[in-house]
Sequence to fold (295 residues):
Amino acid sequence: MTRDDWVRGQALLLAFRQDRLAIPKALRARQWVDLAAAREIVEQDADPRLALTDPALYRSLREAITEFHLIGWTVLDADALRAHATLHQAAS
Amino acid sequence: MPDAASVDSTSLLQILERMDSALERSGTICLIGASAIILLGAPTRQTGDIDLWMPETDLPDSILAKATRSSGLDWDNRADIVERPHVQPIRPGIVQLPSTNSGIWPTGQKSHEIWRGERLVVVAPPPAILGAAKMAAARDHDLEDVVFLVSRRLTNLAAIRQAATYFPAPAGEDALENMPLLEAFLAARTPRKTENLGKEDTR
Fold:
């Protein structure tokens, strides 16, 4: 995952923490890259080093990741999202 | 904690307990929508309306309305802004579900029990039917509810697509049209045995 993708995925997760419908909204808005990156961040979990360098961000990400799991958004297939993102980028 | 106009899993169970105590006689209600999803285990889902699918509910409106009001909820509140949760009787119209035949849904399953009190039994349509109804509307909350059903392996997208074919028009067509919103991005999953809950035993 590129740094840019990571930032986009993180932004989506933080939006999701504020608005639990941010994920379906992102699906409708075809934000494939953001969704794939968010899914991968959830898979990897928040980097524990963040707890030392940016505790507030670490806490927010962990809360978002917990909610992501509880709702069931882990059924999102990161590879399929990534493939759509690639196709979309190639077409535009 | 839900706001005053919403219920979560904890408050929904308390409401059902109160309705159970207030009922004048035994009977079954069929929940659809978010309240059914909550009772199926969605841990953080909330809703303001407890929707009853009347064709599969065997208590008359008068008894249900009385028990509902005794439980501190509104009955059949169609106001745009509600101040507290309400129980909403739903009949075929804007909301459409397939018909059952002697209690059997077209998927070959019975409604399954999701709560039982002393007098009140709460059932819900099979998860695939619930999912197809959600996909017919396909609002953001509906997509989230379908993801919940699939993630818990209560059903899968193939079963939901099949269930949508049993819905009357235009709900069935709407559901099928909306399926690609999720189909391309959800990992294929096989439902657990719970998908067979209520399935007619043909042995």
